[in-house]
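Below sits my pick:
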Amino acid sequence: MSGELVGRSASELARDLATRRLRATEVVAACLARIDEVNPGLNAICTLDGEAALAAAADCDRRLESGVPLRPLEGVPFLAKDNLATKGLRTTYGALPFAHNVPAEDAICVERLKASGAILLGKTNTPEFAHDVNTTNRLFGTTRNPWNPNVTAGGSSGGTGSAVAAGMAPLGLGTDLGGSIRIPASFCGLVGLRTVPGRIPVYPADFAWDTLVEHVHGPITRTVADAALMLSVMAGVDDRAPNSLPDQAVDYVRAGSGQVPIKGRRIAYTPDLGGVAPVAPEVVALTRAAARQFESLGCDVDEACPDLSDLRTIIAGTRAFGMIARYAEYLESSRDQMTDPLVRQVTDSLQVDVRTITQAERRRSAYYHRVRLFLERYDYILSPTVGAPAFRLDRPLPTELGGKPVERFYDVFLFTYAFSVTGLPAISVPCGFTRDGLPVGLQIVGHRLREDAVLEAAAAYLQACPQHLRRPQVDAGSLRHLGDVQTSATGGPDWIGHGGASR
């Protein structure tokens, strides 16, 4: 029974919990058993709060039996990335200076999920300060991908992606700056939604007004319906987040149901961002086939792309500002506790002059308007989510893709960053598998403030292609003989602890 439960969607679990065909304690116990089975090998969860989760489940069961009005996610388990504040439960940011940090309050997204009846199981691994395309750090070690434990789960929400894909929880919370929700979703065969900044209020936040330095919070799930359900309870204005958006009375659940036809919608497909992004041929083939599937759904599809030629210049300048704003202060107080790659990123950023940074922001504004005007002709832009399938942990970045060199680490995720800088909603959905059996993601980008339309397109596509929603076959036996990862993009194997979840 427990094996069957961990394979079910949150929407299915919520329905059966509401009708009392299931008990919340059963569901949580099944998730905890799955965590005990596979997390020691995958290292996706870094802090487990099993006793509190079981107590919360018992409370949900009492509510269900009492006949009080049910909450949307009553008794459904979730996991939260370790850079999201959780009241009374350590939040480390994957960084040594915060190894013993215990917040006094929840992030709003966590707070709202709990208020909807969802049950927090624990925290998922993230790279140091959530700034890497791989998920590894010196506190907890490296997270592995359940599709192939020798490849990356992506970053920086890789712990959440690995855990959800492996069935440790049906719902996961991630954060996304340049692609940190969508990249793990692509690598792990999941659905990952980046909302418009402000749709899900970000608090606590050091930069409350910022739309680029602060990460967007959002869902990583196995289905579009589950992502929509999460969004429906997390969206809405909050005075603690001054750039949060008011409720638009949008039915996100219906948008993600697969029941909204998308016939007649206009789509632009780009395999390489107009020649800007390096991309593997297999990724092009799978995403192009996905674009053809949209044609079979009655959409008009063109191969077209707005002018994104100055994307790298914009990324370089805006990332420099972000690195200085967030981490320069730690160079004085905690330099010896930071990995060399992060130290180099911060010190290099400090060499960038203010004029270069302001020019990048000016370019970003012009870039946004080019994309906006382009979207006057289209409802969506389709692209690969990442230029490559998940790559090996012992070779953290490919050196070339499709004959083009990978010169900077963010070359791998140019597709996600290209639309992060616009603030437009974007979702990654699985669109097939490589010859090696690794999932590949399709990114769907929509108009400003139209997460509902993005969910509609994603749901319609996956309803037509349910074969892309396979789950990885992973168990304790398949993970038993794994050794430590010897190299990483963020500083090598100098781990503290054993890498497993702590209770």
Notes: The domain at 39-48+71-312+351-479 is CATH 3.90.1300.10 (Amidase signature (AS) enzymes). The CA atoms of residues 339 and 491 lie 6 Å apart. The chain has one domain: 39-48+71-312+351-479. The first helix runs from residue 2 to 5.
